Amino acid sequence: MLKTITNNRNQGHFTRSTFELVKWPVLSSDLLNDKVLALQTTRLPLQNTSQLSLSKLVSPISASVVKKIEYESSPYDSFNLGLHVGDNPARVIENRSEVKSFINKQLLSEQLAPTVKQAEKANIQWLEQVHGNVVATISTVSEQAIVADASITREKNIALAIMTADCLPILLSHKEGTEVAAIHGGWRPLVANIINNTLAQMHSKPADLVAWLGPCIGKGAFEVGAEVKEAFTQLDLAFNSAFVKQGNGKYLADLHQIAQHQLEFLGIRVIAHLAECTHQENNKYYSYRKEQITGRMASIICRR
Predict the structure, then answer these.
(1) pLDDT of 72-125, one tens digit each?
(2) Global confidence as pTM
(3) Is the N or the C terminus of the chain less surrounded, counting Cβ atoms within 10 Å?
(4) Which sequence spans correspond to the domains of the chain?
């Protein structure tokens, strides 16, 4: 049986940040942080990133500052990144611009030997996610969203983005940062083998990959019908343990467990979890299941 190395204890719960850096497993974090920039966004209002250090951006802000923060009109609050959810497009584009600016500031500030010539700026590849199993390999960034539910790149300064509002974001990196991928892990893409399809198009061996499973609707809130459980158990009876039957005949499903089983089966041994529930922590995350009309967060990965 494959041994999974997890890092739940050190993930950190930064409850008042717009941007949060991904916490890779302990045994991989130092090397990957030098090679890869990975982050997630929340629904929280944007702080003044030009005047804050990275450490401040990923730390709680004081209660006095929290009182000054005012959300914009519901249901999108102040940092929605989805253009398809009915929000003001100009505001969404501005939010996406802020993400790009933050990424480039971090890439520039982390250069070990900055040159006089400004480093090439990173661009974000957005996807039109359709809950399918199509994977796009990105060599140059398109201004138009690409129809796919996962993306891969081996190029530097291309940031891959996955939007979620209950679904599971999955980020993958070669342990030396030479190849990265981002996967939209809703139950439909997972049952359609989106992880397997992604690995099939990567040049990296699964044993050389590190995975991060981000916030999603948790196992205490994600109620599904028997048909969902059956779709997974037809693939592998091992998925039985990821479903808990309820009195109403439905099941509570554990997306983290489902994805972990698939990753392990395919040979990925090093997996980190940030198992915050988007449904329960709705003050921090958007939740489609809870709100229906709501915004989107993004999980993003970029080679340095």
Answers:
(1) 446 776 799 999 998 889 999 999 999 999 999 998 875 544 443 445 689 999
(2) 0.85
(3) N
(4) 19-216+278-303
